[in-house]
Amino acid sequence: MNKYMEDTKGGLLHTYNQFPVVLDRGEGVYLYDTEGKPYLDFAAGYAVCSLGYGNKEVNDAIKNQIDKLMHTSNLYYNTVCGEAALKVCKASGMDRVFFTNSGGEANEGALKAARKYAYKKGTGRYEFIAMRESFHGRSFGAVSVTGHDSYREPFEPLVPGVQFAEFNDLDSVKALVTDKTCAIILEPLQGEGGINLATPEFMQGIRDICDKEGILMICDEVQCGVGRTGAMFCWQKLGVKPDIMCMAKAIGSGFPVGAFAMTEAVAEYSLEPGDHGTTYGGNPMACAAVSATLEIMERDNIPQHAAEIGEYLAAKLDQMAASNPAVLGRKGTGLMQGITIDTEICGASGAVANKALEKGLLVIGAGADVIRFVPPLVIEKEHVDEMVEILNACL
Questions:
Q1: 174: which residues sit within 8 A by CB, 6+ positions away?
Q2: Architecture of the 69-299 domain
Q3: Closest CA to 247 of 143, 56, 93, 117
Q4: What is the model's pLDDT at position 15?
Q5: Best CA proximity match to 45, nearest among 299, 306, 222, 297
């Protein structure tokens, strides 16, 4: 055991199955442990570190802000929150935004916004339809709409009025719609569920149901948003706009920040002063990180870069599937992809990730039989080649 791990193991509540490594610093698309060993990062802190490590512009924005103002109450305007909000609205195609501290908190706000919309409209609706294999967070509301029994069962009873449809099965959604349904929530590209991409037909079908029945469509883009799929947000790539959308992770390039945004039509009948709040959401440091990240994303056309490198990654993974008997297939898009593995040949995804770690590669699973690739969006083709060489050896 690393000496640092030995010296500090009594302080943390053991809620994570952590890898046996202590990371010390990062540069570009590499992380380094306390012994100086480099690791090519194809996990990016669960798709968080969108611009890699040590991006000077983002770092300077945070450093400059910390000397000016770290925190104010949301009862007062600050100079960076409004600017960040306008940039988020421009990038997301939404009209109003509420900043949070995390993706789970963003989903909590979205659920509340949907129920308040139904309340103000006087529809009497309060139920949600979510998707099996989905993941929306660990808080009570978010886990209530998460479609994994293992995440839900230890904490039941959860928020009532939630039913689960099959992802990419429109008939299963239609079968659950009632006059009590207030919103349908889904990830356009499921992460924890195994890297499952919604079809355009499924997205459009949900949009049509919502429009016909007066139901809101919520897209959770906490993991798949902010350039990762080759568009700024995945719904833009699929061509179907939601009423409310959630984001976090990559939007702050590593700084803890999230947001939920909505159209003006929803905002008009949704949350009002006193309905919802957060002490730290929208704080100046987080908003400085958001502003800098979105400026770089637009100026350097990061989503297009993700699309181009994503095509190269897909081709390499397809070759791996054709030549390596441990790889059964590839799925995903852009720089959010996965391979399904034969666990009888190579073990579960966690075992493969541990082998990769030993060889200087960071990857994570998406279920027991899927290896997930969510690297920083600034990787190049040589990084893909390096990853494939290491992973093939592990498999």
A1: 209
A2: 3-Layer(aba) Sandwich (3.40)
A3: 93
A4: 65
A5: 222
Write out the H or E segment, with its range, that includes residue 186: strand 181-186
23-27 and 30-33 as β-strands: parallel, antiparallel, unpaired?
Answer: antiparallel
What pLDDT score was predicted for residue 155?
95
Q: Are strands 181-186 and 216-220 parallel, antiparallel or unpaired?
A: parallel
Q: Of 249, 316, 331, 355, which residue is the catalytic one? A: 249
Q: What is the dihedral of CA 236, 137, 190, 231, to 10 degrees?
A: 20
Beta carbons within 8 Å of 330's beta carbon, 6+ residues apart: 314, 317, 318, 320, 321, 337, 338, 339, 340
Cβ pair 175, 225 in contact under 8 A? no
Selecting among 42, 98, 128, 135, the annotated active-site residue is 135
Rounded distance between C-alpha atoms, residue 8 and residue 22, angstroms: 11
244-247 vs 216-220, strand pairing mode:
parallel
Q: Is 249 a catalytic residue?
A: yes
Catalytic annotation on 220? yes
SS3 assignment for 328-357: EEEEEECCEEEEEECHHHHCCHHHHHHHHH
The residues pairing with 337 across neighbouring beta strands, listed in sequence order, are: 332, 373
- The whole-angstrom separation of Cα 24 and Cα 309 is 28
- The catalytic position among 41, 128, 167, 220 is 220
Strand-pair category, 23-27 with 196-197: unpaired
pLDDT score recorded for residue 3: 64
In the block, tokens 């000016």 appear at 68
Mean pLDDT by 10 residues, the chain (395 residues): 61 71 94 96 97 97 96 86 96 96 97 97 97 96 96 95 98 98 98 97 98 98 98 97 98 97 97 91 96 98 98 98 96 98 95 96 96 98 98 94
Residue 243 annotated as catalytic: no
Tokens 């994503």 sit at which residue? 310
Q: Which helix (H) or strand (E) holds 121?
A: helix 103-121
Which neighbouring-strand residues pair with 196? 190
| Domain map (residue ranges) of the chain | 3-54+301-394, 69-299
| Domain covering 3-54+301-394 in this structure, CATH number | 3.90.1150.10
Structure tokens at 257: 């920040």
Q: Quote the DSSP letter at residue 222.
A: T
The angle, 0 to 180 degrees and rounded to 10, between the axes of the packed helices 302-323 and 381-394 is 30
Residue 141 CA: distances (Å) to CA of 26, 82, 104, 151, 243: 34, 28, 9, 12, 19
